[in-house]
């Protein structure tokens, strides 16, 4: 929590000067306020202000699916969503700032360096001089819904469990530089200490990104541990023991869930009860929203969001966000491995048509591996526009004057990807390729994508959680043998080297130079052909306010209230 | 000359009937006779006529449909997504801008091909297996055992829930037209098998079979030459309804997304594309394909119903 | 004696048959593409993570080992765990079976209540137009696809007229589930005296039950009618007529003799409804077994699919055995 500046009063002010200056200050303030309000723009909302304490609301939500589990063992988007609500995040969080273009609060991801983050569970944090040891001081009085106060032991147990589960926490450990559970220790009850293998400028940001995976309430969780199951894996699959704003009271997979407020969580959420109903079909979710039977409908198509926007009782909340839908030629295929072929495809793609037809002109065409709102973004390395002649010329140069056969795969469950793929197919067919579309069920798609059996795919699954160019490129475009997420099998030695540096080089001119070079390589060698970033969009009833965008792209109900 | 005639007379026909000219003339006159019978039969049976009309229409569309379509059946036309029926688009357009009417009349090619090929395969396979299984049922020796094994095999396959099994079969091999045909053929074989087997069990008790045995024919010859032609009736009468049912099953598979791949025009997948629109009021995208589907199946069922009466001289009266 | 020997042989074969069914089910399902490990590993997957998920799902062993494990657990009554719900399949089935049963039983009740009287009536009164209309409806009902008909019903009664609630399952969003006695929401609500829940459950039942009834009721009607016609034309009814008994009495005799056949048809109706419910459940998001089965295929969820196919196959095998034996019993001209 940001504290205001401390007002210091001078005891020697004479009785006349103080009132005069006070009046002057008041006049200046009044003028300033008038000026700002007359400018027409809405006065910036204080994004750190808690929701009003006198409201006790129920929110009814229509979700597309239920989480397979509320634990790291099964990590779908729904799992992230529910864990964010019940575990509340980790030691740090992004500062929330006002985005006037979208009239919404959001994580200040473009703030430089560590200015972007602030403490969540931690009230102090410092690193040793060599950067190899970080110590966090916990806030006092953080209580879980079971009533247990947060201590270092909760963090330590959670990390130990994370290493054992070999789940998402291991990924973060890898990126942070933690080698094992021994590197997390408790110097005392209210201090958590981490030993990392090298100084890492992204360390705090990585904690800010762990929005769903905060510490378990170890005391409560251990009650459900058994000799055969010392980490309470069975119980924690469907139940939660966390310090977050909500707890799950009812969970019927595939049908519905109910969450109620954690009475001990501060700042107290205005929404006291959340009813989640699982409606697999997006048109039905839309219909329910329009009839006022739900407050929130998740994951609609852009077409459907347009209908919501037209309805006077509803609203669509938007933010630029960090989505990177892309067309990915998989480089295990020898034709796709040829950079000239990829460049040809980049010139053949119908960007404008996709933007208009699939996304109704909303959002923006993507021009860099770095999302626009991240620091050091530049669009100067992306020259590609739809230019069929250039595409054909490049194809010739690459040695395919008569085109070739290709199959484009996509996840059938994502309607917008199907629509985009249909348009991409017709674009490619115009330069002489024979394209076939392959819509696959989610499980099959994931498998063939990550085992690199596909030729090419249209995907929108990637959004980089850490607001950093180096991290983004590292995760998706380097080290194919160890980075599962590098589904296009891109293996560029310079890129590999540069992204490693992202975890070492401190903020400054050298880092900025690296970020630029990474974007340049992405533009020249085109491992991903970028499509359109539709932005974060959520459909709600109009009376709800208090939206906060966070790079996990979930709606955080604990901030919402009604006007 | 006599020797030549004897060589040609490999069919069990009276002397003289083996001659080629006699054969063709006879067959043609037989066909003409049957058509006349059929015409007489159809008079006064409007249902049967309607069914024949539907069958004829679907065959016509299967051949000429895509060419007659005003727009390309797989063309996503720019700017006209989700338009209601109008002068330009008689059945409206769907969510991607594809003309519904063009797709409705182009779909029979796919649907009919799937249904015909799979039913034909199932018919041939089922009848052959059914004859063997029925004729040699209960006998000792290798044929008897084979008969039993065939029946057990059919039992096993018929035990699976039809739709889910088809779904799993297609899911296993991937959604494509060939795999749908395979799955449907597989599923329908036990059906024809049982029908034929039941008929064969009846027929083999008839005196003329005993007579053929006395004359010295081998088991297989009797089975396929004497018994089978007389046991075909149940399978034949069910041919048409099975075609209809196969179309329905293929559509159901496509509706769930495990049939024909998008954007191939197929009635079931068209209904699937149009289903979300039903909730928001664009009724035309799913209505027309469903109507076409229903009328087609109805037509084939009526034809099957009619043929049941036609082929059974007792019921015909 | 010969019949019983045949019956004995068939019964002896039954366990072998069931074993073969389990093998086919297992291998067919396992050969489905789509290893769910990658999907479950999620966006921060590491190679160890994917391997860990696969190990946890038991998919890392060679197929024959997996089959042995599967057989052993089936013997024990464990049908595996769904990776979508993370619950044991038996528990999932237990939650969803009552929903399907509610639908099917309601549809059956309505079909019988409407179909039998209609069948009798059209058999007795052979008036031209009504007869043709009924015949037309029968043929049409057999031809229209049930999933499409369900969509039309939703469009008419939910979207256009607003009479029925939307296809979101069994209850309104804000109504709480009544305490579980049978698992069928309408029945449980009635038993608990929970009026809003009962009204909501009943309202949600209307459309799917009407869809199923409209499509499958003609089966009952057609068979009742044909049996009644047969009976009315039979010799003993002719005798009754000759003996001067009233029409009503003749009909009563005919009806009583039709009952066994009608009861058989009702049994077959149940079987058809089980199949028909699958797609109707999917369209209405009913949360029953049919939707569960379809979902499992589409998302490569092996355990529920195996369980569903296995249970149905076992059930059907037994029923077919009985029918086959009955076939020989009924027609003495056929020898097994």
Number of helices of chain C: 13
Helix content of chain B: over 70%
**What is the strand tally of chain B?**
0
> Whole-number radius of gyration of chain B?
24 Å
Run of helices and strands of chain B = HHHHHHHHHHHHHH
Which word captures the global form of chain C? globular
Radius of gyration of chain C: 25 Å
Gross geometry of chain B: globular
Structural class designation of chain B: mainly alpha
Strand content of chain C: under 5%
Q: How would a crystallographer describe the biggest sheet of chain C?
A: none
List the helices and strands and how they pair.
The complex is a heterotrimer of chains A (563), B (317) and C (336).
Chain A: H1 17-38, E1 57-63, H2 77-87, E2 92-94, E3 96-99, E4 104-107, E5 117-119, E6 122-127, E7 133-138, H3 152-165, H4 168-176, E8 184-188, E9 191-195, H5 203-209, H6 218-222, H7 233-238, E10 246-252, E11 256-261, E12 271-278, H8 282-290, E13 296-297, H9 302-310, E14 314-319, E15 326-329, H10 339-348, H11 351-357, E16 364-365, H12 388-398, E17 405-411, H13 415-430, E18 434-440, H14 442-450, E19 456-459, H15 469-477, H16 493-501, H17 509-525, E20 529-530, E21 532-533, E22 536-541, E23 544-545, E24 548-549, E25 561-562
Parallel strand pairs in A: 1-12, 1-13, 4-24, 17-18, 17-19
Antiparallel strand pairs in A: 2-5, 3-4, 6-7, 7-9, 8-9, 10-11, 11-12, 13-22, 14-22, 15-19, 15-20, 16-21, 23-25
Helix pairs in contact in A: 3-4, 10-12, 15-16, 16-17
Chain B: H1 2-8, H2 20-42, H3 46-68, H4 100-135, H5 141-158, H6 162-173, H7 177-203, H8 207-215, H9 219-231, H10 233-237, H11 239-256, H12 267-279, H13 284-311, H14 313-316
Helix pairs in contact in B: 3-4, 3-13, 4-5, 4-7, 4-9, 4-11, 5-7, 6-7, 7-9, 7-11, 11-12, 11-13, 12-13
Chain C: H1 2-30, H2 37-41, H3 47-57, H4 63-76, H5 89-124, H6 128-143, H7 146-160, H8 185-192, H9 195-232, H10 235-242, H11 247-284, H12 289-298, H13 302-330
Helix pairs in contact in C: 1-4, 1-13, 5-9, 5-11, 6-9, 7-9, 7-11, 8-9, 9-11, 11-12, 12-13
């Amino acid at each position: 929590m940001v504290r205001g500046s401390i007002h210091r009063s001078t005891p020697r002010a004479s009785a006349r000067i103080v009132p005069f200056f006070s009046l002057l200050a008041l006049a200046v303030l009044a003028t300033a306020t008038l000026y700002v309000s007359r400018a027409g723009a809405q006065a910036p909302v204080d994004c750190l202000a808690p929701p009003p304490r006198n409201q006790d609301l129920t929110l009814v939500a229509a979700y597309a699916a239920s989480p397979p589990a509320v634990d790291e063992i099964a990590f779908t988007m729904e799992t992230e969503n529910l864990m964010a609500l019940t575990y509340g995040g980790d030691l740090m969080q992004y500062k929330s700032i006002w985005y006037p273009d979208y009239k919404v609060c959001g994580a200040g991801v473009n703030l430089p360096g560590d200015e972007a983050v602030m403490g969540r569970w931690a009230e102090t944090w410092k690193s040793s001089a060599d950067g190899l040891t970080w110590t966090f001081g916990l806030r006092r009085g953080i209580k879980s819904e079971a009533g247990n106060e947060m201590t270092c032991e909760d963090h330590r147990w959670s990390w130990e469990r994370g290493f054992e589960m070999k789940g998402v926490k291991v990924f973060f450990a890898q990126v942070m530089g933690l080698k094992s559970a021994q590197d997390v220790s408790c110097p005392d009850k209210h201090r958590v200490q981490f030993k990392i293998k090298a100084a890492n400028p992204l360390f705090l940001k990585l904690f800010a990104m762990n929005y769903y995976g905060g510490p378990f309430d170890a005391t409560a969780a251990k009650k459900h541990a058994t000799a055969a199951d010392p980490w309470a894996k069975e119980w924690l699959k469907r139940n939660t023991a966390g310090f977050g704003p909500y707890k799950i009271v009812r969970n019927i997979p595939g049908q519905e869930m109910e969450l109620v407020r954690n009475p001990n969580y501060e700042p107290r959420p205005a929404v006291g009860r959340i009813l989640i109903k699982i409606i697999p079909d997006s048109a039905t979710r839309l219909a329910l929203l329009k009839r006022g039977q739900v407050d929130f409908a998740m994951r609609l198509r852009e077409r459907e969001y347009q209908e919501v926007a037209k309805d006077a009782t509803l609203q669509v909340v938007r933010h630029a966000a960090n989505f990177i839908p892309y067309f990915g030629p998989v480089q295990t295929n020898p034709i796709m491995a040829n950079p000239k072929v990829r460049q040809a495809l980049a010139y053949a793609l119908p960007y404008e048509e996709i933007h208009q037809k699939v996304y109704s002109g909303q959002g923006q065409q993507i021009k860099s591996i770095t999302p626009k709102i991240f620091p050091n973004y530049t669009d100067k390395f992306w020259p590609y526009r739809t230019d069929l002649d250039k595409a054909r010329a490049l194809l010739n140069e690459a040695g395919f004057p008569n085109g070739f056969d290709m199959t484009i795969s996509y996840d059938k469950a994502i309607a917008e990807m199907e629509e985009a793929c249909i348009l991409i197919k017709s674009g490619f067919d115009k330069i002489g390729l024979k394209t076939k579309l392959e819509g696959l069920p989610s499980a099959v798609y994931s498998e063939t994508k990550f085992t690199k059996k596909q030729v090419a795919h249209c995907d929108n699954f990637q959004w980089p959680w850490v607001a950093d160019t180096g991290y983004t490129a590292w995760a998706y475009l380097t080290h194919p043998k160890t980075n599962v997420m590098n589904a296009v099998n891109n293996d560029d030695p310079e890129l590999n080297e540069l992204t490693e540096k992202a975890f070492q080089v401190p903020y400054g001119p050298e880092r900025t130079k690296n970020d630029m070079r990474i974007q340049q390589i992405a533009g020249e060698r085109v491992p991903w052909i970028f499509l359109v970033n539709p932005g974060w969009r959520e459909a709600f009833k109009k009376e709800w306010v208090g939206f906060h965008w966070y790079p996990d792209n979930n709606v955080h109900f604990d901030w919402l209230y009604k006007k | 000359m006599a020797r030549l005639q004897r060589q040609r007379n490999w069919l069990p026909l009276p002397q003289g009937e083996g001659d080629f000219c006699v054969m063709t003339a006879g067959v043609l006159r037989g066909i003409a006779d049957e058509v006349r019978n059929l015409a007489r039969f159809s008079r006064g049976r409007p249902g049967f006529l309607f069914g024949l009309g539907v069958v004829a229409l679907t065959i016509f569309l299967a051949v000429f449909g895509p060419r007659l379509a005003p727009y390309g059946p797989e063309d996503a036309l720019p700017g006209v997504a989700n338009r209601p029926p109008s002068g330009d688009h008689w059945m409206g357009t769907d969510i991607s801008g594809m003309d519904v009417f063009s797709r409705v009349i182009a779909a029979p090619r796919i649907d009919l091909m799937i249904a015909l090929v799979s039913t034909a395969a199932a018919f041939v396979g089922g009848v052959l297996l059914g004859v063997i299984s029925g004729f040699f049922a209960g006998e000792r020796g290798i044929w008897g055992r084979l008969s039993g094994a065939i029946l057990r095999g059919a039992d096993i396959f018929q035990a699976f829930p039809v739709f889910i099994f088809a779904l799993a079969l297609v899911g296993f091999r991937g959604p494509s037209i060939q795999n749908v045909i395979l799955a449907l053929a597989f599923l329908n074989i036990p059906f024809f098998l049982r029908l034929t087997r039941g008929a064969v069990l009846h027929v083999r008790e008839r005196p003329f079979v005993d007579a053929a045995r006395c004359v010295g024919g081998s088991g297989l010859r009797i089975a396929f030459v004497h018994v089978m032609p007389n046991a075909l009736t149940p399978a034949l009468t069910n041919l048409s309804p099975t075609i209809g049912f196969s179309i329905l099953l293929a559509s159901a598979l496509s509706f769930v997304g495990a049939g024909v791949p998008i954007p191939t025009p197929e009635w079931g997948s068209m209904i699937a594309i149009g289903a979300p629109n039903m909730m928001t009021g664009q009724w035309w995208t799913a209505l027309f394909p469903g109507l076409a589907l229903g009328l087609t199946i109805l037509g084939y069922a009526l034809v099957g119903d009619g043929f049941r009466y036609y082929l059974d001289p007792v019921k015909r009266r | 004696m010969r019949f019983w020997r045949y019956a004995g042989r068939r019964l002896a074969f039954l366990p072998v048959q069931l074993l073969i069914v389990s093998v086919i089910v297992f291998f067919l399902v396992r050969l489905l593409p789509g290893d769910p490990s990658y999907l479950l590993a999620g966006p921060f997957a590491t190679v160890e993570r994917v391997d860990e998920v696969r190990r946890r799902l038991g998919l890392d062993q060679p197929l024959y080992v997996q089959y042995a494990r599967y057989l052993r657990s089936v013997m024990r009554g464990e049908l595996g765990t769904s990776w979508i719900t993370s619950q044991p399949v038996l528990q999932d089935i237990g939650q969803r079976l009552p929903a399907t049963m509610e639908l099917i039983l309601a549809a059956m009740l309505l079909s019988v209540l409407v179909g039998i009287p209609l069948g009798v009536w059209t058999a007795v009164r052979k008036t031209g137009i009504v007869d043709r209309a009924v015949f037309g409806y029968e043929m049409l009902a057999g031809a229209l696809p049930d999933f499409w008909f369900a969509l039309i019903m939703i469009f008419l009664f939910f979207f256009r007229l607003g009479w029925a609630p939307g296809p979101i399952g069994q209850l309104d969003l804000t109504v709480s589930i009544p305490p579980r006695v049978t698992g069928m929401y309408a029945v449980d609500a009635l038993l608990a005296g929970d009026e809003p829940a009962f009204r909501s459950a009943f309202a949600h039942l209307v459309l799917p039950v009407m869809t199923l009834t409209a499509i499958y009721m003609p089966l009952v009607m057609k068979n009742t009618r044909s049996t009644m016609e047969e009976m009315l034309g039979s010799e003993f009814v002719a005798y009754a007529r000759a003996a001067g008994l009233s029409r009503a009495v003749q009909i009563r005799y005919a009806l009583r003799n039709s009952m066994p056949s009608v009861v058989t048809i009702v049994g077959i109706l149940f079987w058809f409804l089980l199949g028909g419910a699958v797609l109707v459940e999917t369209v209405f998001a009913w949360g029953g077994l049919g939707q569960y089965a379809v979902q499992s295929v589409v998302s490569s969820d092996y355990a529920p699919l195996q369980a569903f196919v296995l249970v149905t196959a076992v059930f059907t095998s037994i029923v077919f055995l009985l029918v086959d034996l009955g076939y020989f019993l009924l027609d003495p001209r056929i020898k097994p």
